């Protein structure tokens, strides 16, 4: 079993248990988490749900992207079903009727963010590395990530989405991905206490002052550069800003799929005007299904994970070649129907 669930005093525990794969998610794992949450929602003996990851490297690195690569090459039916169940689970977590404590220790990326950052109690540590790295592999931030990024202060979310940069604990707190900072050495005591006492009381006792956010200190150039209306103009502003970190960001963006960069920016701008996570997840489903059928997803995963040559051949290869019509196609209903939530 890749998901371990058990009752521990007042707590229902969910352990993602694929440590050798950094607890990357399979479809079966999503269904197991959903079954546990459905059962405990009506169980008066369970006062709090606690999500953790096995091993010492992180909570969850996201979906199994090699499996996604293989499925996309076969037409993507398996991962369209995966996305349906994953996004439904993300939405359930966002409105779960009991405290849902996600321990985002270590690597927490992609699908791991979807299982944690929509919960009511989100804990980071000094080891946390939180990210939506989808543009690295020819995909677009999903699992409600575009909602979180779009509502981060200023243009921090746009920077994180286009560069796929990781957040420290301090960054995650500033950007709205986390609520509490707890040193990793205190996690065993924290989780033990959650079995005996209310979550709010436990977090009040264990949470410590948040570490500083390096990202927040860069707000001036980030807000100025990423407020542009197009990816091309964002890159131009970054390169002409005279800020070394901005030039580095431009170089990171240049390595990504031109199509997915433009779709990502469009998705974030649309999500910024939408307050409902459910509606944004419905938008993400359209985009993700379209991405499964696009050349750049298979090519991006090939370059990063399969062949590991780190030399993706994007198509189209440049930003000017990606038209508005190309972008709009990602927001059209998929052939097998929309995802409907709520």
TrEMBL record:
GO cellular component: cytosol
InterPro entries: ClpP/crotonase-like_dom_sf, ECH_dom, HIBYL-CoA-H
Signal peptide: none
Record-level GO BP terms: L-valine catabolic process
Class of this enzyme: hydrolase
Catalytic reaction(s) noted: 3-hydroxy-2-methylpropanoyl-CoA + H2O = 3-hydroxy-2-methylpropanoate + CoA + H(+)
Domain Enoyl-CoA hydratase/isomerase: 12-331
Entry-linked Pfam families: ECH_2 (PF16113)
Domain of life: Bacteria
Keywords noted in UniProt: Hydrolase
GO molecular-function term, one example from the UniProt record: 3-hydroxyisobutyryl-CoA hydrolase activity
Protein name: 3-hydroxyisobutyryl-CoA hydrolase
């Amino acid at each position: 079993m890749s998901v371990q669930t058990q009752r521990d005093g007042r707590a229902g525990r969910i352990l993602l248990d694929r440590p050798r794969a950094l607890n990357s998610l399979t479809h079966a794992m999503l269904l197991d988490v959903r079954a546990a949450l459905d059962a405990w929602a009506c169980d008066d003996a369970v006062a709090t749900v606690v999500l953790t990851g096995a091993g010492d490297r992180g909570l969850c690195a996201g979906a199994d992207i090699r499996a996604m690569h293989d499925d996309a090459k076969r037409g993507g039916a398996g991962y369209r079903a995966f996305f349906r169940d994953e996004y439904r689970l993300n939405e359930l977590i966002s409105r779960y009727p009991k405290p849902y404590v996600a321990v985002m220790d270590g690597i927490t990326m992609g699908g791991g963010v979807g299982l944690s950052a929509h919960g009511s109690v989100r804990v980071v540590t000094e080891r946390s590395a939180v990210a939506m790295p989808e543009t690295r592999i020819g995909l677009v931030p999903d699992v409600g990530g575009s909602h979180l990024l779009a509502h981060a202060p200023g243009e921090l979310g746009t920077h994180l989405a286009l560069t796929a940069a990781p957040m420290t604990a301090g960054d995650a707190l500033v950007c709205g991905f986390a609520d509490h900072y707890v040193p990793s050495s205190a996690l065993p005591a924290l989780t033990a206490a959650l079995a005996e006492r209310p979550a709010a009381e436990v977090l009040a006792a264990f949470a410590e002052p948040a570490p500083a956010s390096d990202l927040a200190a860069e707000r001036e150039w980030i807000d100025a550069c990423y407020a542009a209306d197009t990816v091309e103009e964002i890159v131009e502003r970054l390169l002409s800003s005279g800020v070394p970190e901005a030039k580095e960001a431009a170089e990171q963006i240049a390595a990504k799929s031109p199509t997915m960069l433009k779709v990502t920016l469009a998705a974030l701008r649309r999500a910024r005007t939408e307050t409902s996570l459910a509606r944004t997840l419905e938008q993400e489903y359209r985009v993700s299904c379209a991405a499964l059928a696009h050349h750049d997803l298979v090519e991006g995963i090939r370059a990063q994970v399969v062949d590991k040559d780190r030399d993706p051949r994007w198509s189209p290869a440049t930003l000017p070649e990606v038209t508005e019509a190309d972008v709009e196609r990602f927001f059209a209903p998929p052939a097998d129907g929309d995802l409907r939530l709520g």
